[in-house]
Amino acid sequence: MESIVKRLSALLSVKSIVTIVLTAVFAVLSVKGGVGQDFMTIYAVIIAFYFGTQSAKEKKEE
C-alpha cells in the first residue's frame, strides 16, 4: 500500500502533470488532424526530457 501512495505522490509532480496534459492535448489534436510541426517538435522535446530524467533517476537509485 505504501508503494502505491509513493507512486501517486510522484505522479503529482509538476513535470508529470505537464506531460500528462500535453499528451492528452496531443491525442485530441491527432484525432482532429490538427497537429502542426511546431507542436510535434515541442512535444517530442518535452517527452524526451521527461523519460530521460526518469531513466537517469532510476539508474541513480540502483
| Sheet with most strands | none
Question: Radius of gyration, rounded?
Answer: 14 Å
Number of strands: 0
Strand content: under 5%
Task: Please give the domain count.
Answer: 1
Descriptive account of the structure:
- By secondary structure, this protein is mainly α.
- The protein has one domain (2-61).
- The chain is 87% helix and 0% strand.
- The chain contains three helices and no strands.
Summarize the structure.
The chain is mainly α. Helix content is 87%, strand content 0%. It contains three helices and no strands.
What keywords describe this structure?
mainly alpha
List the helices and strands and how they pair.
Elements lengths: L1 H10 L2 H19 L4 H25 L1
Helix pairs in contact: 2-3
